[in-house]
Amino acid sequence: MVCGVGFRKVKSFKMTLYSPREDSEMLAHEVQKYAKGIVLDVGTGTGIQAVAAAASSKVKKVYAVDINSAAIAFCKKNFKSNKRIIYKVSDLFSVFKKNRIMFDTIVFNPPYLPADNESKDISVIGGKKGYETIERFLNEANDFLAKDGIILLLFSSLTNKQMVDEIIERNLFEKELLHSVHLFYETLFVYIIRKNSLAKALSELPVKNLKFLGKGKRKIVYTGVYKNKKVAVKALLAGKKATSVELESFFLKKLNKHKIGPKLLFSRTNFLIAEFVDGTFLKDFFQKASKQQLKWVLNEIFKQCFVMDKLRINKDEMHHPWKHVLIKGRKVTMIDFERCRHTMQPKNVTQFCQFVANQSDFLNKKGFHFNCSEIMFHAQEYKNNPSKENFDAIIKLLENGH
Fold this sequence. Notes:
Blueprint: E1 7-12, E2 15-20, H1 22-34, E3 37-42, H2 48-54, E4 59-66, H3 69-78, E5 85-89, E6 103-108, E7 113-114, E8 125-127, H4 132-141, E9 145-156, H5 161-170, E10 173-183, E11 186-195, H6 197-204, E12 207-215, E13 219-226, E14 229-236, H7 243-256, E15 264-267, E16 271-275, E17 280-281, H8 282-288, H9 291-310, E18 313-314, E19 325-328, E20 331-334, E21 341-342, H10 348-358, H11 360-365, H12 372-384, H13 388-399
Parallel strand pairs: 3-4, 3-6, 4-5, 6-9, 7-8
Antiparallel strand pairs: 1-2, 9-11, 10-11, 12-13, 13-14, 14-16, 15-16, 17-19, 18-21, 19-20
């Protein structure tokens, strides 16, 4: 029976190690074929992958790491004559974070079994659902993989292949199945994984410490560090029109001149980089804010809406802005401008009037009272004539709220 990382238990250095079996041999075959340059063998165990890599003429040097110090001691004792391999105790990439090395090949035969009540052994258990260790590895791997480097990853059908595929994609990688074999109750897979075109472009800038943040209908969003600043990277999803990114970049450039929106730092056809905006979403802010804080934030949002109206830019989301406004300290920042468009009749102020009117019951409970029908009257006046005078009438109504 193949279990976990495919090792049969043996005792060494008063700690449990595992001797290679089918999955290790299966991966070692691909390592001999594909390993190149500077190699990192993660979770080296008894060292089979490191030794396989070191035997290749295409390999310059091999680093072999394991969280288990007994495994490293075992390898140092048994393979001390192989001067091409450097052994280190490390939890995944931790030992390389201070003095970063970019690897041409990263090999990982991870623990991949889902947790059960029988075993707590971290060398075979990959987490509650089996894929957590793989996820942690892939979340960090981009920062240690050379632009044209490869990852050789082995895992099991017991690990949830669909989830592994999703983790690979959202970490800016593309995969190819090299080999699979069915053994008893599981199928083993070996993937060769490479950086996708977006990851390569970002590494050239460079953007570091990329972390998945979220996925929408048209874009996928990451955080990262660019020119020593925390940034948000918005990238186009496969199959979506590039105009989504191009439009947001276009309108951010215009609006940034008026201190609206996250500062745009860089843009290309399929992605943009903007300063990361931290803060509290408007919906959460509403729940905790005092009456005076509510007056202040509504005033600030109305001012930005008025500027956009004057620029004849319609955001088309101000009737439901809960997730489009962030507040931190005394700063209010609108986000997400991909639906913006130029129009002779922008509706930012009037849409936000509708939003405020719809929240009148909630605002009343907060002690912030105003005449709902009156604000809609002034909204209509402003719609007919979007002048500064009619806008000030809306602001005055809010300021006079009691």
